[in-house]
Amino acid sequence: MTARAQIGVTGLAVMGRNLARNFARHGYTVAVHNRSYAKTASLVADHGDDGDFVPSESMADFVASLARPRKVVIMVKAGAATDAVIAELIPLLEEGDIVIDAGNAHFPDTRRREAELKAHGLHFVGTGVSGGEEGALNGPSIMPGGSPESYEWLGPILEDISAKVDGVPCCTYVGPDGAGHFVKMVHNGIEYADMQLIAEAYDLLKQGLGASAQEIGEIFAEWNKGDLESFLIEITADVLAHVDAETGNAFVDVVLDRAEQKGTGRWTVQNALDLGVPITGIAEATFARALSGSVPQREAGRVLPAESGAWEISDRAAFIEDVRLALYASKVVAYSQGFDQIAAASAELGWNIDRGAMARIWRGGCIIRARFLNRITEAYERNPELSLLLADPYFTEQVGQGVGAWRRIVAQAALNGVPTPAFSSSLAYYDGVRAERLPANLIQAQRDFFGAHTYQRIDKDGVFHTEWTGDRTESDA
Ligand SMILES: NC(=O)C1=CN([C@@H]2O[C@H](COP(=O)(O)OP(=O)(O)OC[C@H]3O[C@@H](n4cnc5c(N)ncnc54)[C@H](OP(=O)(O)O)[C@@H]3O)[C@@H](O)[C@H]2O)C=CC1
Ligand SMILES: O=C(CO)[C@H](O)[C@H](O)COP(=O)(O)O
């Protein structure tokens, strides 16, 4: 076997096969392999004319077909399958070779694998890839972690096959070990929030205006021409316009209202709890999916009284504009929180992640690609240490213009019994983060009362405790 392939892909399901085709279409000789040979054979049979593929049945032949340093992309089911493939690869590879896990791995797994492969003299690159089937083929957003040295070898190839916006690749080096998969995880968390917010906007228009799916689709299509322009709004308009062939009804009206999840949103929330970063929009979106699937609770809950009146909206156009403004503001909150989480993890793990660069590589190729990501990049370019995206002058003004609408929508939804967990929690976050004084003073006093947990004062330095069950004197703790 001649070692002539410039890159290899093992795992040729939806993502791997399209990524392999993308490499081939960009002129790379691509070694391809899958656990079961049928997928390899069908890739070459169906898409052989995309470029130069080198198919192999065995992992040993696959590795032997790669030029050194070998670059092996693993695109298999995340978790145990990735470990199994790595274990098979290690004895076949040589010092300096690069293993790239492009699946949706959990970043602690990536950190573990990177350390393990380093001990074998191998580079391990955990990379986020977003864009689904279409993105993998035509240009995804790529978020690679690992050693800077590995990026010197790999970066040009990944940048080549990534999406481009204004000629700029949607791929850049993210940071060491698990940084790439961490950023992909937060991307997916934001994806959950964005989808939930869009779903809430749809529900408000449906319940408030009694609008049909078709009409709401037209509203979303209109919104997609302005500040909200994004892939998710675009596909929402498309989905809402789709008619079910079997029933002739709007497609969304025949889809069961139970949202599933594979785990990246949950990981994002779990990690935010560990870091102590309030990502309330993402958390509510994740829990909203859980609520939608809580079948026994939802069946039991149908008896609960609503105590809400009939929703009458006199000015339809004004209501639609309010929903649009509330959606935009809530969306900025979700991104602001997600970028806070990236900053916190980066500081804790010494990753030195450039948040502006992350917004830049999310402008194209990925599921959350959106017009306003340009504005986020600009905000972090203005101030790389920005502690709150919402406080960047551009976003302060933009969100500020919609605050009245946001409050009206959240209030009307509550009065009319329409659940808006992501809209409401985002507004609560906005009010919380801008508050001069929060009621946490009372919580500190309570904690000191029952557990001598101490508190600080606003009028002098130090840490104090009050003898609550004694004479109530205060002492330095
Ligand atoms: N689908 C999507 O839109 C996106 C997916 N991802 C991530 O990309 C990765 C691939 O996703 P997708 O293409 O959907 O495929 P799947 O996650 O459905 O995984 C199927 C692939 O994994 C292989 N596989 C499963 N178990 C093993 C094992 N023990 N040893 C070797 N190979 C194994 C299968 O081989 P076989 O054919 O032999 O069964 C097949 O090639 C996943 O990590 C996913 O989370 C990332 C972004 C978007
Ligand atoms: O990674 C992705 C896109 O970026 C996938 O689409 C994501 O896995 C979908 O997640 P879930 O199944 O949890 O909704």
TrEMBL record:
Transmembrane segments: none annotated. PROSITE patterns: 6PGD. Residues 180-469 form the 6-phosphogluconate dehydrogenase C-terminal domain. One of its GO terms (molecular function) is phosphogluconate dehydrogenase (decarboxylating) activity. Its EC number is 1.1.1.44. It catalyses: 6-phospho-D-gluconate + NADP(+) = D-ribulose 5-phosphate + CO2 + NADPH. Pathway: Carbohydrate degradation; pentose phosphate pathway; D-ribulose 5-phosphate from D-glucose 6-phosphate (oxidative stage): step 3/3. Keywords: Gluconate utilization, NADP, Oxidoreductase, Pentose shunt. InterPro entries: 6-PGluconate_DH-like_C_sf, 6PGD_dom2, 6PGDH_C, 6PGDH_Gnd/GntZ, 6PGDH_NADP-bd, 6PGdom_BS, NAD(P)-bd_dom_sf, Pgluconate_DH. Pfam families: 6PGD, NAD_binding_2. Homodimer. Belongs to the 6-phosphogluconate dehydrogenase family. Catalyzes the oxidative decarboxylation of 6-phosphogluconate to ribulose 5-phosphate and CO(2), with concomitant reduction of NADP to NADPH. This is 6-phosphogluconate dehydrogenase, decarboxylating. It comes from Flavimobilis rhizosphaerae.
